[in-house]
Design brief:
The structure is a homodimer of 205-residue chains. The first copy, chain A, has 205 residues and is an all-alpha fold. In chain A, 71% of the residues lie in helices and 0% in strands. In chain A, helix 1 packs across helix 2 and helix 5 crosses helix 9. The N and C termini of chain A lie far apart (48 Å). The first copy, chain A, binds a DNA duplex (30 and 30 nucleotides) through helix 3. Chains A, B: It comes from Sulfitobacter brevis.
DNA sequence: ACGTACATACCAACCGTATGGTATGTACGC
DNA sequence: GCGTACATACCATACGGTTGGTATGTACGT
């Protein structure tokens, strides 16, 4: 899709660079707090290039959410937590994996679509929907392992489902990110993830 | 503090009306997405009145977080969940209370300071700190009941504390709000709160 | 093989408006 | 008459978005 040329080797990558800039800057300042000029400056492109690729700022928000969904799902698909044979171990390994990447600057480990959801859910439904798809699709990848663990360990659940537990894991992570941002301390978020892991062990083991 | 007059009976309440407007509009559009004119219009005051009470938009953000902390802590202090004699029942009643108020429009039941934290934690440290205080102080009100429940039920916790569990409840609620906004469905949030309640029961009963 | 037609990717400069913020004045209570 | 609580009018800038253009690549008929 990119198109390199002789005199301008970067040519063709403006769209991707804008999406990467959006991922980084929106996580720092939020969607409304991020200006088109911010993005152009960070990506090293002009506003003409920006509006060539995105018809509006809202369109970039949607594309950024989709870009996030694509890149993160690729990351999780190749992560090592799928290896254990016991499905419960896979779920717990997923939790460990999520915990392990909570470190450093909150702007770098927190979730783009969770952040965008908060401020766009009323004003920009298209962005909200793209964010919802990203979150729910990721949660859905956990359902088979949870369901298999329930079956294997003879868990009888009358008042909850694999789907609701999968979504709950995402709620805990999103909430943990908020605490980490508020306190500027990843450790607070990791403690919540510990509670989540303990819950799943109590529930399924 | 308010000062009524003959020709302008609303006079004196501009600051409070601005803070109420901030509480409502920032929850809909976020802090950056909310303009000073939005607030003045909703509060029915002029920009002169606005800058008489708040030296900047950031100052209003801080005041709005403090206003939120004050009004919500008053609400929770007089809520009925403190009545049970068993401290575990009080904690569970708190969860039930939080679940019960999750209904209707997400903009009305979600948390102002959780929303503001997300977009201000880098750009406006003063706002972030006010948000953190609001969240952590509220979490701290749960600690005595959790600690008492641990003692009463002989819970032996080597790897977690009453404080971390109290904060975890707030993480779950904040995360549940994000899912509710993304899906535009309070039910998703309530299911996460159910998981939280189940966790506390497994842990402390 | 080559010219034409078209599409893609980008740039520089500009525009109308909305934004946060200010300067100045006035009504009112004490 | 003095401080507080506002109102009116205004400003410099930043904002999202537009315009018109150029360079590069591709499809295709001949």
């Amino acid at each position: 899709m990119p198109r390199a040329t002789k005199i301008e080797p970067e040519r063709g990558g403006a769209r991707t660079r804008l999406l990467e800039a959006a991922r980084d800057i929106i996580r720092q300042k939020g969607f409304s707090g991020t200006t088109v000029d911010d993005l152009c400056k960070a990506a090293g492109v002009t506003k003409g290039a920006y509006f060539h690729h995105f018809s509006s700022k809202e369109a970039l928000g949607v594309a950024a959410a989709e870009f996030w969904a694509d890149t993160t799902s690729a990351l999780f698909a190749q992560a090592p937590y799928h290896k254990p044979e016991d499905p419960l171990d896979r779920v717990l390994a997923y939790i460990d994996f999520r915990k392990a990447i909570i470190e450093g600057d909150p702007a770098e480990f927190t979730c783009l679509v969770g952040t965008m959801t908060q401020e766009t859910f009323q004003s920009f439904p298209a962005i909200r929907d793209a964010c919802a798809t990203s979150i729910l699709d990721h949660a859905a990848t956990l359902e088979p392992d949870i369901a298999a663990a329930m079956k294997l360990h003879g868990t009888t659940a009358s008042d909850w489902t694999a789907q609701s537990l999968a979504r709950h894991t995402q709620a805990v992570l999103q909430g943990a990110f908020i605490l980490a941002k508020a306190t500027n301390d990843p450790a607070v978020a990791r403690e919540s993830v510990d509670h989540l892991k303990r819950y799943i062990q109590l529930l399924l083991a």
